[in-house]
Amino acid sequence: MSGQAQGGAEDAPHDMIPGRTPHRHTAWYRALAVVAAVLIALMIAVTCIDVVGRYLFNHPFGGAYELTQILLAALVFVALPLTSADGGHVEVDLALHLFPRPVQRGLGRLAGLVSALALGFFCWRLAGLGLTQLHEGTRSSSLALPMAPLAFIAAASCGFSALVLILRRED
Amino acid sequence: EELIMSSWLPPKHPVVVNAFKPWAAEVEKVTDGRVTVRIMGKPLGSPPAHFDMARDGVADITYGLHSFTEDNRFNRARLGQFSFLGDDAIANSKAYWKIYGGELNAAEEHKGTHLLGLFMHGPGLLHNNKRKIETPADFAGLKLRVPGGYVGDLVSALGATPLFMSSTEVYEKLSRGVIDGVAFTYESMTAFNLTDYIKYSMTVPGGIYNTTWFFVVNEAKWEKISPEDRAAIDAISGEAFAERVGKAWNDADAKAREVIGDKVDFYEASPEVLAAMKTEADKLENSWAATLGDGYDGKAALAEFRKMTGVTLE
Amino acid sequence: MTISLIAFAILLAMVFLRVPIAFAMAIVGGIGFGILRGWEPAGAMVGNAVYETGLNYSLSVVPLFIFMGNVLAGSGIAQGLFAAADRIFGRMRGGLAMATVLSCGGFSAVCGSSLATAATMSKVAMPSMRRFGYSDSLATGAIAAGGTLGILIPPSVVLILFGLLTEADIGKLFLAGIIPGVVGILGYLLAVMVAVRLKPDLAPKVGEVHPMTRRDVISVLAVTALFVFIMVGIYGGLFTPIEAAGMGAAAALVIAFATGGMTRSALWTAFLDSATASAMIFAIIIGAEIFSNFVTFAGLPDSLSEMVDGLGLSPWMVMLLIVAIYLVLGCFLESLSMILLTVPVFYPVISNLDFGMAVLNDPEAVVTWFAIIVVVVTEISLITPPIGMNVFVLRSVLPDVPLRTIFRGVYVFWVSDILRLALIIFVPGLSLWLAH
Ligand code: NA
Ligand code: NA
């Protein structure tokens, strides 16, 4: 959801929930979106298997807590470039109506660059974190899954989102 | 010099109130106010991040559990996480400081920081609401929340199902019957409101498990303090802090036992159960000792530890 | 304290120049921390905040509760709720607006977010109100205000975040929201009655009442069943409030397919919208975490507590002062960031006060009561100009309605909200009766 006052519902598909940002239709966007949908479905499945399993079969799913954590982090970072491409981060453009159109557009680009800078910094720190984890052999506590790949996914996501924001065209 | 301390335990936790805060006040006193400690009202990161936070200087002083990080870096720290180590948190913490801090070279595993303390809590118990564990077979099928690491391997070897979750989830899960029990101290039973959901608590001499804690200050920041002040702070840290924090844990355990009264059936493990536990514990101790590599004798360290705390294993 | 205030000012300036609020908080917080503490520590703190927020188990409820609401929004159930509510009020002046309020309340019981509630209900209620000649201001005002109930009536993403910030029992917070939520519905219904009484041309005299179709009945039953499933599941001990989100999402899918209102593309949209909304919310949580680490480090919570002590104000004055600050902040800040930034600062102040009321002797009760107060001021902020997120949602759905018109329609509801806020502050029992 964007705080932007403008943004068309007209060009949105017929069944789109109103008030939401229209989504992009590029190949990478669709691919990431499919991954994100699968991750949400898996999160639901993990909870259901855990809850249903412990009552029906008296057998809880030991890794549910940890898998939920990991799936959640993966989801957030897979979805971040999508939100960035949609212009879906909460922003406020109230004061902007006071400025002429080219200034508005310029400020939009500038805001995008500033955000990209923050995301680029996240990317750098997360990559460093991933390298440290690789070096120290960090694993999750019950399933002993290596944690470094997650940090690298997070780093890639922030880096990619930064690029998306730099290249994003204002409508 | 102002040292920033990030604290993730609840502000009213007995260890915060009776160990960290008095220690911080004493630092100011012994350095005549040249060094002060400011404890943040809110932690500057998640609990597992706290060692790195001190090393990287996010905060100057932090504390936490070695078992927070599941990696190879605090391998020798596991000395204090085994069974049958001691029933008195003061003796435990002093032995831990002396042995892990001494011949097991804790300083090397805490690179980038200066050690202010290494400590343990009172004996860990096995609480459950299903049955009294009379024979090793009674472990079968019990779903037990464990803090990870050694005690997870132990209960799993004994036939129970270990489950992992944050300590704050324990209440939700225990009260809903998702788990049958939990490996916790006396103090945690009241701290997490578990008394109504626990029926039986099994004790073994020296505790079923323990957790080990670090208390560190950023090394670069430490070097900035004058040698006299460093010496003064060291004098109230280390072994002196082990005494202080051990007493805080002991008092908290005693208070919890008083509050619980006879609402829970506390019982000593039967000789049979104890024997089974010792067999599995011994295997786990051996495999840990084998990972320490040259120059470190894990079995000797454990033996020395038990000698210091007065636990005898025949 | 000065440096914190300067940082807040820079933050607001950046936000007004269109920097997304998540990144504005991260940048100001990170740089502020760097200035006070050094750049390497600041970098480490920022890296940790990004990584650990993603791995926070309790936050798994955010995508799952959002998904639950989105599935139901795409399944046509909201239409049924609206039609049923219309049966109750259809014969009264302003009946459709009242039906909007009631069905917003109903949808709130299965949707954790106010924006999603407003967006969903606008699609359902707006066309009918337009067809019957309701003024745009009353119509949009009722939807924008009714939508705010989404975060008060459980499930609620905001109450969960509050619980995480204060370590309060989320199950209790959910229970605490129910009565104030019902009071909110009644207040809004009254607001519509008063508005059409004062200005009869806002709404036509009568609408026409359609008979309820089978689908409408099924929708009402389905929403009731899902709400009961979640509540009984949590309080009957079947699953934890965190697990309730996953179970609720699964149940919503079952309902959506069983009632036949779900198309494949609506399902796809529900997935995609939940993913992107989650990333948006997590970006804000990360930014707020970074900013609030800086503010904590700068000593704002401590100096605030000291200042309150120094002023010698009575506890009730402190509470009213904090509420006043919230109302002012609510004009300018987006709701999630407002909660994430302020609760860590104000909660320590509140938890140390003695309000001299028997019901508030238990510290846990004070947290619950404060949670509901914070949620109600947040609801108010959602419809307060210049930045009222629910109003923006309506504006983006109805590009032809000027922002001004929506805000004009909202003011009667705003008055009702302020009265409700006073009631909730001075009668803590409203929040505490079910929970404690
Ligand atoms: Na809700
Ligand atoms: Na506002």
From TrEMBL, chain A:
| Pfam family name, one | DctQ
Provide GO CC annotations from the record. plasma membrane
Where would you find this protein in the cell?
Answer: Cell inner membrane
Domain Tripartite ATP-independent periplasmic transporters DctQ component span(s) in chain numbering? 43-167
Give a yes or no for keyword Translocase in this entry: no
Q: Could you state a single Gene Ontology molecular function term?
A: transmembrane transporter activity
Database matches in InterPro entries? DctQ, TRAP_DctQ
Sorted alphabetically, the keyword list is:
Cell inner membrane, Cell membrane, Membrane, Transmembrane, Transmembrane helix, Transport
Origin: domain of life: Bacteria
State if Transmembrane is listed as a keyword.
yes
Record-stated family: Belongs to the TRAP transporter small permease family.
Briefly, what is this protein's role?
A: Part of the tripartite ATP-independent periplasmic (TRAP) transport system.
Q: Tell me, how does this one assemble?
A: The complex comprises the extracytoplasmic solute receptor protein and the two transmembrane proteins.
The protein's name is TRAP transporter small permease protein
Native source organism of the sequence:
Paenirhodobacter ferrireducens
According to the entry, what is the taxonomic lineage of the organism?
A: Bacteria, Pseudomonadati, Pseudomonadota, Alphaproteobacteria, Rhodobacterales
From TrEMBL, chain C:
- Cellular component GO terms held in the UniProt record: plasma membrane
Q: Which residues form a coiled coil?
A: none
Q: Where in the cell is it found?
A: Cell inner membrane
Tell me where the transmembrane regions lie.
Answer: 6-36, 57-84, 96-117, 138-162, 174-196, 217-238, 244-267, 279-301, 313-332, 339-360, 366-389, 410-435
- The main place the protein resides is membrane
Q: Which UniProt keywords apply?
A: Cell inner membrane, Cell membrane, Membrane, Transmembrane, Transmembrane helix, Transport
Q: Please give the function described in this protein's UniProt entry.
A: Part of the tripartite ATP-independent periplasmic (TRAP) transport system.
Which PANTHER family has this protein been placed in?
C4-DICARBOXYLATE TRAP TRANSPORTER LARGE PERMEASE PROTEIN DCTM, SIALIC ACID TRAP TRANSPORTER PERMEASE PROTEIN SIAT-RELATED
Q: Which NCBIfam families match?
A: dctM
Report what the protein is called: TRAP transporter large permease protein
Q: Which organism is it from?
A: Paenirhodobacter ferrireducens
